[in-house]
Sequence to fold (185 residues):
Amino acid sequence: MSISAQILEIVPKNIIRAAASIKLLVLDVDGVLTDGRLYFGEEGETLKAFNIQDGLGIKMLQSADIHVGVITGRTSRPLENRVEELAISFTVQGQADKFPALEEKRLQYALELSEIGFLGDDLPDIKCIQKVGFGICVANSHIALAQLADWQTDKTGGFGAVREVADLILAAQGKLDKILSDYSL
Ligand SMILES: [Mg+2]
Fold:
């Protein structure tokens, strides 16, 4: 059985349909692209750790013509460096209310809400998760999100949750096995 078939076998049909429509995946940062911990250096600078497997998942989505964007409540330099490295389509920082920023990007990309996925971990992400076609939360999300989201990852934020979503979206769109075959002998 192919990797795609293995992934899709355990996912409900309505979730596969939602994932199959996604043209833009929007990610929260703290607790999603990171494990949510902030390290404070001696000079007061903030450091964050990003997951390398999530990074490849983002690259895989981009190679399949699926946009990936970031909307976060905080503002940070480490994030700017990481999104530049990954050539992420857009980064909106310092958004206490994330939905207006999501709506602005939706219009800019001329997409329907049903074509957007959002992955979050905490209360500021609820509105986006409820509005988009594929609302997802990480395994260690606040319980309020777990009840509202269409789907919850098995992996936690900063430990492969983004990669898990990337694999699911690509599998649902029939694009994963081709990408994986490029890596195998
Ligand atoms: Mg968060």
Notes: Residues 25 and 68 are 5 Å apart (CA to CA). The mean pLDDT is 96.
